Amino acid sequence: MSAELSSITEWADKRTAAVYTAKSKTLAKLAVEELFAPHVKASINGRKISREEIDQLLLDMRPTEEGALGFYWTDLVGAPRDPSHRDGSLSGMYVISGLQIPHPETGKLVPGFRRKGVAIIIESQSEDSAIDSRKIVEFVSVANNYPLDQ
Prior knowledge:
Structural class: alpha+beta
Order of helices and strands: HHEEHEEEE
Oligomer: single chain
Number of strands: 6
């Protein structure tokens, strides 16, 4: 029996939000593990990064061990490879708020936000159609930080 899967867009929205809105770094790490395949091919701002670097980047942006970041998509387009939505691709733009970032002029940590554009490929990790095993297997991101005073 096949699992009724949400759309690629709904899946990405829910899983990505879980990373940023998790109430602790521990819960965020679990959300990252549910989002990315262990063998993901990734780059950020043109530099290839490993799965371990993805984990570190996503977890280190949190200013404290406890507490969620803000997150919302500004644009999101998903395209399944087939009607089952087991595999597909997605692109979008989102904003992460609640960050402490170095001010571009002073270097002092100030409240800020990150704008991020992504292009991803999502694939099921299991042949068993009764479970939702989708994860990101390829990820290209362009991101930049902005102080709230800009």
